[in-house]
Amino acid sequence: MRSLLLGDDPRASHEASYEPLLSLTPERQRSTFRQNCLAVGALFAGAYVDAVMQSWIDRLHDRHRDLLPDMGIDALSSFAHLSHDLPDVLLVSVTILSLVRVLLHRRRVTLLRRYAVLQGLILFLRSMTISVTRLPGPRGPSCRNVMPADLNPLLGGVLVLTRQILTCGDVMFSGHTSAMVLWALITNSADRRAGDHLPSRLKSPIRIAIWALVWCGAFVIIATRFHYTVDVIVAVMLTCSMVWLYTALVQIGVYRTKVEIDDDRLEAGGFGRVVALVSWLERE
Fold first, then answer.
1. pLDDT for 174-216, tens place per residue?
2. FRET pair for 134, CA 20 to 30 Å: which of 3, 11, 217, 257?
3. Distance between terminal CA atoms of the chain?
4. At 105, is the secondary structure helix, strand, or coil?
């Protein structure tokens, strides 16, 4: 249970050594290439769909609607003077520190693949939540990033994705928070896997620094009216749930190969195929 909550892999104690990529057979190299392509494709597809929905919803967004009452924004009103660029700075900081941490692990490719797949799925879910119910942006009329009315949403998605246009109407939920929490959970998983090149004495300080930046980022997002408090809470809950579900699927795949499991029960509703896909993505 502890490994499930922390996002660990039950194979950690058996991962003392791995073959370098160059020693893999041609067939295994092709499989690794397909795994990586699927992960990167999931990430970019999710990001693009989310960006398209941002560009579409922003044209419909009314910046003059009454703002929603928010306890978090009210409680942190004394920090409202902070730069609106600070959430981006903290997200980049968490990303860089987490990347350094993950790249020092021998299973870095698998960990990055896991991040890409989960981030793509989370962004796809976000594309639905920001569009089905339009909420007034927490910054109100002060958010002046107006989407051109005649801009095709498909092109607008490219402009949003490349940060050439910023939007105000994508509220529920916080993409910055979900990305930071996901990175933190991925680094937690790296800390508990064998094959680590990082000295043990540095693991805790780096993990603490990453989580400190994550929670600092969450408070800054609320304080600067980047998002409502509920956007941040939903982002944390959804991201943790996605990571725990993914980890549970990995564990089911591992135990399926070790003990006898009723395949008919796994196949119900296509669940067995999901387990097989996740197991394939995690395969070294």
1. 999 999 999 999 998 876 665 667 777 888 899 999 999 999 9
2. 217
3. 24
4. strand
Give the integer Cα–Cα distance in Å for 220 and 80.
9
Domain borders along the chain are: 25-64+82-282
Tell me the per-residue pLDDT of 75-96, one tens digit each, with 9 for 90 and over: 998 888 888 889 999 999 999 9
3 state SS of 65: coil
Whether the CB-CB separation of 180 and 91 falls below 8 Å is answered with yes
Residues 157-175: b if buried by 16+ CB within 10 A, e if exposed: bebbbeeebbbbbbbbbbb
Q: With a cut of 50, which residues of the chain have pLDDT below it?
A: 1-21
Which residues does 43 contact at the CB level (< 8 Å), separation at least 6?
Answer: 116, 117, 119, 120, 123
State both tokens at 29: 């190299």
How is residue 103 written in tokens?
């790249």
Q: What are phi and psi of 196, to 5 degrees?
A: -95, 135
Smallest Cα–Cα separation from 95: which of 117, 74, 121, 115? 115
